[in-house]
Design a protein that fits this description.
Blueprint lengths: L20 H8 L6 E5 L2 E9 L3 H18 L4 E5 L2 E6 L9 H15 L1
Antiparallel strand pairs: 1-2, 2-4, 3-4
Length: 113
């Protein structure tokens, strides 16, 4: 279990700082199965989770959604037969914040059961 899962997400505003390169290196080491992707000029964290079938994928999607709703920080989730792709980034600042790494770690923990 990553120490990130025990940290609290903080409310972000438009002027909240993006994660620095050093922070991304340190925090990324806590969630090594996540990849950095760029969409529409914004850096994001993304991971695809493999599941047995659509029912399991949908159940996992709902768990991630419930977790996101609890902290009011919402990912992009793509649900397909046997897999779920979760993408975290902070919309307000157009990129990555510490919160995204926290939520990636919590998503990993949900998947691990």
């Amino acid at each position: 279990m990553s120490a990130l899962t025990q940290q609290t997400c903080e409310a972000c505003s438009k002027d909240s700082p993006l994660a620095t390169e050093q922070e991304k290196k340190e925090l990324g080491a806590e969630v090594p199965e996540w990849s950095y992707v760029f969409r529409n000029g914004e850096e994001q964290l993304e991971r695809t989770f493999k599941l047995k079938n659509f029912a399991e994928a949908l159940a996992f999607t709902n768990k991630v959604g419930d977790m996101a709703e609890e902290v009011d920080h919402h990912p992009m989730i793509t649900t397909e037969y046997g897999k779920v792709t979760v993408t975290w980034w902070t919309h307000k600042i157009g990129g990555l914040h510490r919160n995204d790494f926290i939520m990636a770690a919590r998503t990993d923990e949900l998947f691990a059961g």
